[in-house]
Amino acid sequence: xxLSIADLTPEAPAAVAxxxxxxxxxxxxxxxxxxxxxxxxxxxxxxxGHDEGGRLIATVMAGYDGxxxxxxxxxxxxxxxxxxxxxxxxxxxxxxxxxxxxxVVRLMVRTDNAPVAAxxxxxxxxxxxxxxxxxxxx
Length: 138
Ligand SMILES: CC(C)(COP(=O)(O)OP(=O)(O)OC[C@H]1O[C@@H](n2cnc3c(N)ncnc32)[C@H](O)[C@@H]1OP(=O)(O)O)[C@@H](O)C(=O)NCCC(=O)NCCS
Prior knowledge:
Layout: E1 4-7, H1 12-21, H2 31-40, E2 44-50, E3 56-64, E4 69-76, H3 85-100, E5 105-107, H4 114-122
Parallel strand pairs: 4-5
Antiparallel strand pairs: 1-2, 2-3, 3-4
Helix pairs in contact: 1-2
């Protein structure tokens, strides 16, 4: 099916519910705040995919840091997985990032999420020999 894909605007609770069901939330993150921050910044967004009935069934967050584009929070509703919707959402996010001027796109996959790494490899993404380090600033 063809999704209707647009910026997520008024529906943060539905997106948060989707992410919780998809296992993407963590106690130390505030997903609603993540959505608001991404939507408040001109170089990032959250794309939402709706079915014909207007139900939010897919999301992806995209941001361009001036050097690379990044993807986060890709999720498809459990009852709609395996229909090509994840591929469509990634393509939409790639298009959005290209429009921002990003020459390359990257993403991080939690080490315990092997299935999603296989999904991205199916879409042409290649593993990188990098170690990701981080520190909280607030
Ligand atoms: C990852 C996810 C978004 C994939 O969405 P989806 O709609 O089921 O994927 P699609 O149907 O678009 O699959 C696209 C292609 O990837 C393949 N694929 C999907 N899942 C796969 C897997 N686990 N392993 C290998 N290939 C996979 C499909 O076979 C399909 O191949 P094809 O187009 O060549 O036939 C979905 O499983 C999901 O929401 N998972 C939970 C949330 C999550 O982990 N998000 C990632 C956070 S980093």
